Amino acid sequence: MIDAMQHLNIDYHFQEEIDDFLWKEYVIYSNSGDGFGHHDLHQIALHFRLFRQQGHYVPPEVFNKFIDKRGKFNQRLCGNMKGIRDLYEASHLSIAGEDILDEAEQFSKQVLKERLLGDCFDNHEAKLIRNTLQHPSHKSLAMLTGREFFGDFHSMNNGWLGSFKDFAKIDFSLQQHLHQQEILQISRWWTELGLGNELKYARNQPLKWYMWSLACLTDPTLSEERVELTKAISFIYIIDDTFDVYGSLQELTMFTEVVSRWDIEASEQLPDSMKICFKALYNLNNEISTKIYTKHGFNPTHSLRKAWESLCKAFLVEAEWFGCGNIPSGEEYLKNGIISSGVHIVLVHIFFLLGQRLTQHNVEIIDRSPMIISSAAKILRLWDDLGTAKDENQEGNDGSYVYCLLMEHQDMSLKRAREEVMSMISDAWKNLNQECLFQKSFQTTFTKACLNLARMVPLIYNYDNKRYIQDYINSLISDPVIM
């Protein structure tokens, strides 16, 4: 039932009941002395995933019973497609050093792909397998992919499941109406701000900016936070375009100095477009800081200003590299690229907007861009750099890790470089899992936002299918719910 609720994106309504139930189940498991006490791959893999998602550690050795003498998963499991799908799902909750889960992912993925190539299953099973491969639960956003699972449950003759589907349909429609209202607020703000007319070179994509906020903060009660976060995200894109396609190196250096000083008078020396951009950023930062202080009693001005300063300095480094034809090492590029991804800006705003555990200690941790933030940033940067095309409105050149890698290692093929990047993304996910699932410094709402940002990345940067994210936007905002 919990698995179905999560896939249908209605689990947040029953979170207290889910928490209580999984804790009781985990206590039973912990006190059993012999693990799960049975050899049902489906049950073990499902419990493993649900427990880990809940922050309850289960060792990967629970899968040892499915390993043969060669240290590989037993081939006799291949006929248990339900178990194989759950094993694949479970493997995505791995952390560093868990080789058995790496083996589980490779084994289950191969079995599922071979099954798809065969002709011994019906269309329903093929859809189940494709959805599992394309949208593993832990690395997907249920609000975007949930409706793809309606058909998965269609053939199951189960009373409570039918009720869940009906409930999910109503819930989706209510959320759709809320999203439409939030988009109207953002559109009015963007129109009144006037930057779309003033800064002709900048991307004008308020709906795309909003999708990041909606992905990170999925709880319907966080409507105000989503709107404020979207405003901040818009300036990441605007400033990125200022550095990529507008300013000269001298002008960009001046702009970065003004942001570092956070001096409205010093901005008068800037070109008109940069002056307008900085003043709008300055005002927005003050507005958001005031709202956070009024609601949560903590003034985030210093942290937000330092975050914008770091972003501009990272953009300037890239402008100096590629404007002068200098190619950094892969390590240098990635270290800077983690900052220029803008992820720290997004997550530091979320941290303060949520107002949870606003201690000086946690603020100092957030300011240093800890692993929970840098891992998500690395996933975004590397995914973006794997893209085969630029944003359709982006004319600038800000490099890529793949290109730096190829220049640094002249004998490396493009295929090998891409494989290296995919391996690094996998490692970054393991670090993110470690921080989000088993570290308790931050509240669940914040850690979920970090996970959700990483989950959103493949959708935004799916350059092979430019309409991919637009289809999801339409499904969330305007398409009727059909089950």
UniProtKB/TrEMBL annotation:
Ranges of residues in domain Terpene synthase metal-binding: 192-430
CDD domains to which the protein is assigned, alphabetical: Terpene_cyclase_plant_C1
Family matches, as InterPro entries: Isoprenoid_synthase_dom_sf, Terpene_cyclase-like_1_C, Terpene_cyclase_plant_C1, Terpene_synth_N, Terpene_synth_N_sf, Terpene_synthase-like, Terpene_synthase_metal-bd, Terpenoid_cyclase/PrenylTrfase
Keywords, sorted A to Z: Lyase, Magnesium, Metal-binding
Lyase as UniProt keyword: yes
GO MF entries: magnesium ion binding; terpene synthase activity
SUPFAM superfamilies linked to this entry: Terpenoid cyclases/Protein prenyltransferases, Terpenoid synthases
GO biological process terms, semicolon-separated: diterpenoid biosynthetic process
Location of the Terpene synthase N-terminal domain: 1-132
Gene3D superfamilies: Farnesyl Diphosphate Synthase (1.10.600.10), Terpene synthase, N-terminal domain (1.50.10.130)
Cofactor: Mg(2+)
Descriptive protein name: Terpene synthase metal-binding domain-containing protein
Organism of derivation: Lupinus angustifolius (Narrow-leaved blue lupine)
